[in-house]
Amino acid sequence: MSRPEDTLPPDLFYNDSESRKYTTSSRIQKIQSDMTHRALELLDLKSPSLILDVGCGSGLSGEILSASDEEGTPGGPHIWIGFDISSSMLGVALEKEVEGDLFLADAGQGVPFRAGTFDAAISISAIQWLCNAESSEESPAGRLSRFFNGLYASLRRGGRAVCQFYPKNDEQKKMISAAAVKAGFGAGLLEDDPGTKSAKTYLVLTVGGGELDGDITGVVKGMEGVDVLDQRRKVKDRRRPEDRKGSKAWIIKKKEQMERKGKVVKATSKYTGRKRRIAF
Amino acid sequence: MKLLTLNFLTCAIKTCKSSPSSFPLHPRDAELEIVEADLNLKFLENILPRLMWDELRVVVDELGLPTLPPTIPTRADLVAPSSPTSSSSSSDPAPSQTARDLHRILIETCVREGKLVCGNCGHEYAVKEGVANFLLPAHLV
Description:
Region (Disordered) (chain B): 74-98
Structural class of chain B: alpha+beta
CATH superfamily of the largest domain in chain A: Vaccinia Virus protein VP39
Number of domains of chain B: 1
Number of strands of chain B: 4
Largest interface: A-B, 32 and 31 residues
Radius of gyration of chain B: 17 Å
CATH topology of the largest domain in chain A: Rossmann fold
Strand order of the largest sheet of chain B: 1-2-3-4
Mean pLDDT of chain B: 86
GO molecular function, one term (chain B): protein heterodimerization activity
Low-confidence stretches of chain A: 234-238
Oligomer: heterodimer
Shape of chain B: elongated
Strand content of chain B: 15-25%
CATH class of chain B: Mainly Beta
Protein name (chain B): Trm112p-domain-containing protein
Structural class of chain A: alpha/beta
Order of helices and strands of chain B: HEHHHEEE
Strand content of chain A: 15-25%
Shape of chain A: elongated
Pfam families (chain B): Trm112p
Order of helices and strands of chain A: HHHHEHEHEEHEHEEHH
Family (chain B): Belongs to the TRM112 family.
Number of strands of chain A: 7
Strand order of the largest sheet of chain A: 3-2-1-4-5-7-6
């Protein structure tokens, strides 16, 4: 199946008919609500909070955020603020009379809220759209960095953000998480059903400070069925062995250097760099 | 758009980010409506330390609503003093009149139509049916 990201920009792709299709399809509704519940589980909110929904669309996830604790939303009912770039999607949300406040805005242009506004942020199937730039004045990297910088500033210390997205390839996954790390987040990826057709990628972002327990490894601690793959670079304290002075590799390097200078250099053989036999 | 949201919203233009006058955005030609909602005491307690009270008073004055008290209520003001007659107050404290007023202003009062104007650059953000348009033309990003 072709990716909608490759066909049209989001504000044009989600036109009236596509928005309606998206919102009324029970299959999409089911997937969205599952993902929202998973994201809420990762956010681990204890009390009613102010939440930002990036790419809220028709408010499918917002309806879950507004639900109370008894209806299955941990810590709810939350107050949420959502923005989306597609006016048709927002139109559907208005018809449904969702409880959150809606904005028509482009996440790639930043997040227009003052510092420390939100307890948490959630984004379901949206940020892969940021990897596409529709005009020559913008670049995917610029859009991602504006978004993550704005998001980092608008979250309170110790806040969390969970962004579920559909990466096109590993490169895109890396680009998005690198942009988040550059903005200051502690970032980690959680993958559900990896390697299958229904793989879901969650970018779990943490803002330092507060009562938070480290990065994503602290978030998933105590969750069942989660394997932690730490790919952070280990600090290398050992120098590369071939650089050691007097080794064969070092001698060959020096000989090449001398040869390039035009000096007469003995040919390299199997005896090069070998120790002499002890005479006695 | 709730007045609560307006208390957090700044101008989206990059050059305004560093200017203190880009917050709050000033409502102009605003048409207000009341959207009834359930009072959520825990949320009010949670959000109270993050409110910018002086700016909220300015916005409320500009909208022509009754003036708010000069100082921000404390967390203790939100809970009604538990009377000895009510026995269930220990588990679920009742909201006070202050909490009710705050809920009315922050959550239930919404800007339906109008404009939001940045105090720094004068950019106008249109609000239609409660949805504000924060899309910027490419040269302002």
